[in-house]
Amino acid sequence: MGYDIERFVGYVNEGLLCSICRDVLEDPLQAPCEHAFCTACIHGWLVHHSNCPEDRQVIDVSLLRPLYRYMKNDLNRLQLHCRNREYGCEMVCSLESIDRHERECEYSQIPCSNAGCTVQIERRNLDGHLAVCEYRSRECPNGCGYTILSAEDTQHNCVAELRTELELLRSEMICRVEEAKHEMESRLDSQRRHMVQKESILQNEIEELKSQMSRVMSDVRSLMAAERQHRQELEQAELEKREL
């Protein structure tokens, strides 16, 4: 839906009116036939129709385009009253800046920020309402440190509230201790498995070294036996030499 034409100051060009709702264009789109529509209006129309509501030419969502720049500029320059005029706001500004103004307008009706309160109040009166709202919160005057709602004053019991908090803290501490215990056991188990694995690897390495040492000793014995035999052969050869 477009902007209510009654809110505008002065004359509004016919070309800036939505061809469906007949109000001033809001978030406008234009068909190839140059008829303009509010985005919400034309999308709703095309759910049940496949043509332009003005001249019945066939159109599709994919054919819709933004408004011509000069028309968009004319639209943005239109002057209109704030929608909170009925509550006392006398602001008149351009269509281009109206949304920004209305988001901050002191006459806007906004909900009370206190949980449980359903009151709608003007933004300018919000602080005064919050000071007396029956759902406002405040710190317990007895010093327990709890934040309470005024509506719950008669039901608030400092001792009971503190006891409940103490039980919650105790339960939380027990849970944390259990979590820390499980985590520590998990780490110890992981380290134990790692040590066993390392021990197995070292044992295998020791066995391999023993095997290598045994082979080396065998080779040494073989070399020594060969050396003795060689020496004997040399001695025998020397004797034969002397005899000759």
Automatic annotation (TrEMBL):
Keywords: Coiled coil, Ligase, Metal-binding, Zinc, Zinc-finger. Residues 192-243 form a coiled coil. SUPFAM superfamilies: RING/U-box, TRAF domain-like. One of its GO terms (molecular function) is zinc ion binding. Transmembrane segments: none annotated. Residues 101-144 form the TRAF-type domain. Residues 18-56 form the RING-type domain. One of its GO terms (biological process) is regulation of canonical NF-kappaB signal transduction. A zinc finger (TRAF-type) spans 101-144. InterPro entries: Znf_RING, Znf_RING/FYVE/PHD, Znf_RING_CS, Znf_TRAF. It holds the Pfam family zf-TRAF. This is RNF41 ligase. The gene is Rnf41.
